[in-house]
Amino acid sequence: MKEKPQPPLGLDMPFDEALARFIGTAPSELPDSLQKERRPKPPPKDADEKDPEAPA
To answer: For the whole model, what pTM was predicted?
Structure first.
């Protein structure tokens, strides 16, 4: 049996206030489960190599 999809998330505050709160949140204030692991950035690709997923 199919479940009904959940309604879209709604906020009871203006968008600019919600964005300011989101931007102003320090990563250290987040619970450990929400913090991303620090991973090293992958090395840059050489310009000579073609990316098979890149559009032609």
So the answer is: 0.37
Nearest CA to 34 out of 44, 16, 22, 49 is that of 22
* 16 within 8 A of 23, measured Cβ to Cβ: no
Enter the tokens of residue 35.
Answer: 């913090």
Q: How far apart are CA 23 and CA 18, in angstroms?
A: 9
pLDDT digits (tens, 9 = 90+) for 11-40: 788 989 989 988 898 878 877 766 666 667
CA-CA distances (angstroms) from residue 13 to 1, 18, 23, 38, 52?
36, 7, 15, 32, 44
34 within 8 A of 42, measured Cβ to Cβ: no
The first and second tokens of residue 37, run together, are 């692991």
